[in-house]
Every structure is written in C-alpha cells, then in structure tokens.
Design goal:
Layout: H1 2-30, H2 39-67, H3 78-111, H4 127-156, E1 164-172, E2 175-180, E3 214-216, E4 219-223, E5 227-234, E6 239-243, E7 248-252, E8 258-262, H5 268-275, E9 282-286, E10 298-304, H6 306-314
Parallel strand pairs: 1-5, 4-10
Antiparallel strand pairs: 1-2, 2-3, 5-8, 6-7, 6-9, 9-10
Helix pairs in contact: 2-3, 3-4
Length: 342
C-alpha cells in the first residue's frame, strides 16, 4: 500500500510538470511572454471568484444537511436547555458573519479585477471606517459575553432546593468510581495515605460519615427531576468529567475538590424512545488526554424514576459492609468533603 501511495504522488508530480510545459508552449505559440496577464485572464479569474463563492456557500449548506444527524440530541438536563440556547445564539452570529464577509470579499474581488487604464483611489486613513469596524464587533462581543456570563451564573449559582443526591466522581487512570452519600447525606472524609487495593478512594473508616457511603463502578444511577450534586477528585493527573447529554463538564484536579450540579429531566428509557435506539445510554467520559487508555475511560449513566433509583440504591453495599480493613487513626490532614445536605 505504501509503494502504491508513493507511485500516485510521483505520477501527480510528473503530471503537474507536464502541465507547466503545456502552458509554456501555449504562451510561445501565442507569441506573448509567459508572465503576461491579459484582460481575458483577469475576467476569467473574476468569474472564478464568484464560482468559488457559490461553491463555498453551497458546500457549507450541504455539510449542515449531511451531518446534522451526528450532533447531540436534545439536552437531558434543566440547565442544558440554556446552554443549547446560548450555543445556537453564538452560532447564528458566527454564520451571519461568515456569510456576509465571504460575500463581500468575493464580490469585490470579482467586480474590481485589474483593467488596464483603471486606477484605484488611495486614502491612508478613515476615522469613519475604523469606528464602524471597531464599534460593531465590540457590540456583538459585549452581547455574547454578557449573555454567556448570565447563563454561567444561573448554572453554577446556588439552588433553592436541598432535596437532591450527593455523588462524588473519583477519577484515576483509566477508570471512574462513583461514591454516593448514604442516609446521612454526607460524604465521609478521605486521605490519600489510606489508599489500598481494598480502599482505592482512600475513605477514612474511622469517620462515621464514611460508613454508609456507597461505591459503584461501571455505571451510576440518577433519579429524574432531582438535583444531583457532584464533587470531583483525581488520584493522579488532571481528568475531566464530561457528561455530554447533560451539557455538563468539570475538571478533576489532583489535590483539590471541584463541584458541579444539574437536574436530569429525561430518563434513559424516554431518551431511547426519542432516539429510537434501545442500546442508547448516557455516558460519562474523560475529556482530557490523560494517557494511553484515555479513550477507554467511560462510565454509563442511568437516569430513572425515583422509585427505580431507590430500588437500585437499596441493593448496593455500604462501605462499612465491604471487606475493608479498619483504617488507622485518621492523619492530621484528613480532608473533610464540603458536600453535605441538611
């Protein structure tokens, strides 16, 4: 296959050289210097400019039509609707600028092609033009920034209801572990010095809040219509917890805890019906290139009714019931998670 590609490239170079010889021979037969550009050449280039404009805009429309089915489905979280609206708003502005700028660019290149005897008007400065191309973009950018900050504030701000689920997502190369706060609605303390094969999340078993914590791998569940409060930790490198269908993403940084919250609005079963795909699952991905098996760092997310969620949660084992050796006295730097619902 490699030899075939080399042969094709070689033939392409040879064909290009022969084409150059044909152009040179054609100029010699006309009795005109090869480097001379005629009015006919300029008119041809002008028409080609308009042809290129039609091709670019047509190709742009075709791509939208051809690949629109590959975009994410409707948002499955409450705040995701705002994110999608913000995205659409920005894209319409970008598309408008793209179309207008290219139409003006190619139109001027086509209309004002070189003609013998024509002279362009020269002026070194125009305050009016500079104000136009400074103020108009500044207005657009200000609207985008203010709108974006409002959406971000709405998403990351405090929520009125405290009736939700507390979950920690723990990242390490190359998998995820979900930890649920137990009946006390508190995540137990952790300390990296307590990491063992039996206690990979470094939970402090001497902390009463840890005893009812629930650890799951492979998948985690969320009740629809209830706020999910996430905290994120990483054992080794920076990972990024990305839940695309909920329009949620947060970095997992070693040595610190980050937080995010959202409310799921569509169950997995409902989304499967909407997409006509019985194999569909929401997914948690790592959105940072964290190593050789980065692509495999995934976890399924199941959104279900509250009754189904409670039934699933009741089947899970609490941390204290696992065969985990008792931890030594908690070191002085034991970290108490900030997340707790009262």
């Amino acid at each position: 296959m490699t030899y075939f590609i080399i042969l094709i490239i070689g033939l392409g170079i040879y064909a290009f050289a022969q084409l150059a010889n044909v152009v040179q021979l054609s100029s010699s037969l006309k009795g005109a210097p090869e480097e001379e550009v005629t009015d006919k050449d300029n008119r041809f280039n002008a028409r080609m400019m308009m042809g290129m404009l039609i091709f670019i805009l047509g190709f742009f429309v075709w791509q939208i039509k051809e690949y629109s089915h590959t975009i994410l489905p409707e948002s499955a979280s409450e705040h995701g609707v705002e994110i999608d609206t913000l995205w659409d708003f920005n894209m319409w502005i970008v598309i408008l600028v793209f179309v207008v700028v290219n139409m003006v660019l190619f139109f001027f290149a086509s209309k004002y092609y070189f003609k013998k005897g024509n002279r362009a008007t020269f002026f070194a400065h125009s305050t009016k033009l500079e104000l136009i191309w400074t103020i108009i973009p500044a207005i657009f950018l200000s609207v985008i920034i203010i709108y974006g900050l409002k959406v971000w504030t709405d998403i990351t701000g405090p929520v009125e209801s405290k009736n939700g689920v507390i979950i920690e997502l723990y990242a390490k190369q190359f998998d995820w572990t979900a930890r649920y706060a137990g009946k006390d609605n508190k995540l137990g303390a952790t300390n990296y010095k307590l990491i063992t094969d039996e206690n990979p999340l470094a939970l402090d078993k001497n902390d009463p809040a840890s005893s009812d914590d629930i650890l799951t791998k492979g998948e985690f569940h969320l009740p629809v219509g209830k706020e999910a409060y996430f905290s994120f930790r990483s054992r080794d490198v920076i990972h990024s917890a990305y839940m695309p269908h909920f329009r949620a993403q947060m970095n997992c940084v070693p040595g610190m805890e980050t937080q995010f919250h959202f409310k799921p609005t569509i169950t997995t079963a409902e989304m499967r019906k909407k997409l006509n795909n019985e194999k569909f699952d929401y997914v948690l991905l790592c959105n940072k290139i964290c190593g050789a098996s980065h692509f495999n760092m995934q976890m399924s997310i199941i959104v279900e009714t509250e009754a189904e969620y409670k039934a699933w949660l009741a089947k899970q084992k609490e941390f204290a019931s696992k065969d985990t050796p008792a931890a030594p006295a908690a070191p002085a730097d034991t970290t108490k998670p900030k997340m707790a619902l009262k």
